[in-house]
Amino acid sequence: MPDKQRSLKYYTLFGFFVIGIITLLLGQVLPILSTRLHLNDAEAGTFFIAFYGGSLLGTLFVTRIARRFGFVTTTVIGIVMMIVGLPGLNCETFFACWIAIFVYGIGLGFTIPAVNLLTIEITPVERQAAAINLINFAWGIGAICSYPFVAAFSQNNSLVSVTASLVVGLVLLAVCFVSARGSVHVVAMSSPVDESADRIWSRPAAWLFVLFGFFVIGIESSMGGWLTTYSDTFDKASNVINLTTVYFAFLVFGRGLASLISRRLRESTLISICAVTLLIGISLLVFFADSLSVVGAAISGLGSSAIFPTNMVRFTKVFGAGATRNATPVFIAGTCGSAFVSWLIGQISTSYGGLRFGIAVLLFAALLVLVIQIAIVLVFDLRERPR
């Protein structure tokens, strides 16, 4: 049994690596889809509605299914949805591609929260912050590899090799998780210190965590969606490095670093440091884009690296270990934040005639993250809680 549980931890790492590639896949293949389907920017942008809509739908049901079947089975269901949806990217009609993106978006909506919460559930309390940052480190590696992967496997605007490779990896991953189902035993009844969903979300202050997740994930997703386009607005001679690559490279580095130092810092302390760092990085991207955009992307990546995964650990310490099965509003908020902030950047950019104005939305969001973080620390006194 210990060997199977150890293997399950390796499966979660590999799984989040693949999920990292798929999470950013749409942004990398969008130019290919636009060319093949003869889409303008407005039409291509509706693919993001499909993606986030599917992800939201998956997130809405993930904890309900997990309560009945467990996080491992829920993860497998999400993987199957991605296996079904990804090949549809090779379809020759707009509607078929839209549906395919919606379907694999549902799969991501299942797997991302399920794997996060599974990791928390199978890890001792004192090591949860390190474990959750480690799997998100693996996600970041996958995110960095997404663009090179598509560039290497796509040929003549064809995505057959790209989707086939991902499907093979997902099938192997599904087999691994199915083989490990028996290694996780979940007690149906909550422990005395756990809180039910009603007790958690009937407390107005608990919704600070939801608001926090809305802006944190909104920032991270918008960085992945807009930084490549933002890079293209600069003089190529002065900025030859893709900002998306820089951002996710330092996000990965930050998550790896967080997995090492999280045992020495309280969750709220680590989150506060990251929130301030994120605000500084985005400020550089907005006000000094021509000269310090690469530095700003790097600092922003470090700042956003550990905030959300560490916040999930803090959530379980505030409301009890059973709170992982009542965390649906937090993940829904993250998905809604991704859709809203990404959409708002485009609207502001079009209205004011420049993407720098749109990126300023991220600066306002980062400021709100810091304000909400201060509120959470003041409301939930974690300093006196045992580690």
Structural class: mainly alpha
CATH topology of the largest domain, anyone?
A: Growth Hormone, Chain: A
What kind of sheet is the major sheet? none
Radius of gyration over C-alpha positions, nearest whole angstrom? 20 Å
Give the SSE string: HHHHHHHHHHHHHHH
> How many distinct helices?
15
Distance from N terminus to C terminus (CA atoms, Å) equals 27 Å
Concise description?
The protein is mainly α.
Walkthrough of the structure:
The protein is mostly helical. The chain folds into 2 domains: 184 residues, Growth Hormone, Chain: A (Up-down Bundle), CATH 1.20.1250.20; 188 residues, Growth Hormone, Chain: A (Up-down Bundle), CATH 1.20.1250.20. Helix content is 78%, strand content 0%. The protein is built from 15 helices and no strands. Helix 4 packs antiparallel against helix 7 and helix 6 packs antiparallel against helix 10. The protein starts with a helix and ends in an 8-residue tail after the last helix.
